[in-house]
Amino acid sequence: MATERECLCAKNTPKPLPTVEPADQKVKEALKNLMLDDDVLKRIMTKFRQDVEAGLKKATQPTSAVKCYVTYVQDLPTGSEKGRYLALDLGGTNFRVLLIELCETHFEMKSRIFAIPKAEMVGPGDKMFDHIAECLATFLKQEHLDTEPISLGFTFSFPCQQVGLTKGILIRWTKGFQCSGVEGNDVVQLLREAIARRGDIKLNVTAILNDTTGTLMSCAWRNRNCKIGLIIGTGTNACYVEKQQNAEFFDEPDKGSGNVIINTEWGAFGDDGGIDFCVTDYDREIDKNSINPGKQLFEKMISGMYMGELARLIILKFTKDGLLFGGKSSPLLEEREKFETKFVSDIEGDLQGVYTKQKPILQKLGLGHATDADMMNIRFICEVVSRRAAGLVSATLAALLNKMGEPHVTIGVDGSVYRFHPYFHGLMMHKISELVDPGRKFDLMLSEDGSGRGAALVAAVAAAKDEAVVTN
Ligand code: GLC
User: Fold this and answer.
1) Which of 191, 310, 386, 446 has its CA 20 to 30 A from that of 332?
2) Rounded mean pLDDT, 455-470
């Protein structure tokens, strides 16, 4: 298995970025408002920095779009954590249960993926937690671990107001979830109750964390420079290491490093109209049709849950305007969410001027009548959509790097868009370098299973602390 360091090196020699042009200049002209220049990105940086500062302060957090929740994770792992931990990773349409054995030099991991039926994502909350507890029990029994108590780190990738390491109040669902009876409640408690209702497994939930925190912890285990955790997957978000004295909501006595990890929840950036200057009609359409209109604007402009749909809306409009496919659409192109985010990555993965991956995609969508010029234009549309996403994320990252003021920061990254898009890494390296203050060094480190191992590490650090308290 490759280590993160190997992944980092491989990833840090990005493929040269293609310089693509559409077949038709009218297509380029029609996409102008999605092509953000550095002046626009710098405006975004300024606004984001203001929102982060506001989110950290008690007086201004209620009106700030970026909430900057404190995580109560203060200590990064030392690399010497040991023991066997369970992790539960909930944040998308699947959830995973992981058993992780941390040894001094390496770790071993077994995991199983369970689906969450769509109906459960929007049904009663206790039903969903019962389903999770049932899957946990299945896994523990399969591993013959159902008799001894085991510590569990719970990665719950939604905005939570934490009141300590084991209490997280869900502020609101994101990414297509809408279970009733959970918002405003402590999700650790809901999980514990579901486990207790079964009565057949012994689990000690020792920490709740966001996937960004899991990613940061996981990368920091190997790389001490890692101080930002980033997700660009179904959703997008970042956390970073802040000084406890700057985080007014951190109300525990100053301990350890004097730092605390802040979960920015930057997906909600722009929900107050603060970045309306770069929001397009396509973004508004996506927002209007979503399960959570008016919320997570920034996320909807970037992440994997929406990227394909954004491309579809553009392609459909251009078809209707006669710029594509001779004006001839197809029933599938007219249907919501039929153009998957994966298609964007695949289409851009074709060598320039070759449409090996694109052709079958268009065929599948009933657009077999596409000409080479159409395919060149479609590729250009995908490029514009993914470049805008990479540009937006780079702007907020550069703003964080400038705020942190550290000479060298490694950014731990996970998520399907970052992993599978052929140029996302390169686009980000390039754009962050252009936007960050001169002299600041950074790198992007692909996390190997960030959320899962990170949860085990947080549980391990918490367990080590408890032991220290007991023995002191
Ligand atoms: C959404 C969630 C956030 C999570 C992100 C990435 O933005 O609100 O908590 O970190 O998705 O999964």
Assistant:
1) 386
2) 68
Ligand 1: residue whose CA is nearest its atom 11:
235
State the Cα–Cα distance between residues 369 and 325, nearest whole angstrom. Answer: 7
How many domains in the chain?
A: 2
Report which of 320, 283, 377 is spatially closest to residue 28, judged by C-alpha positions: 377
Q: Pick the catalytic residue: 75, 186, 211, 283?
A: 211
**Active-site residue flag, 51:** no
Q: What is the CA radius of gyration of the chain?
A: 22
pLDDT at 465: 63
Q: 51 with 81, same domain?
A: no
Q: Which of 230, 274, 358 is nearest to 46 (CA)?
A: 274
The structure's pTM equals 0.92
> Taking the C-alpha atoms of 421, 427, 432 and 435 in order, what is their torsion angle to the nearest 10 degrees?
-140
pLDDT value at 323 more than 90:
yes
Contacts of 334 (CB under 8 A, 6+ apart): 316
Residue 231 lies in a domain: no
276 catalytic? Reply is no
Residue 175 and residue 124 share a domain: yes
Cα 88 to middle of ligand 1, angstroms: 16
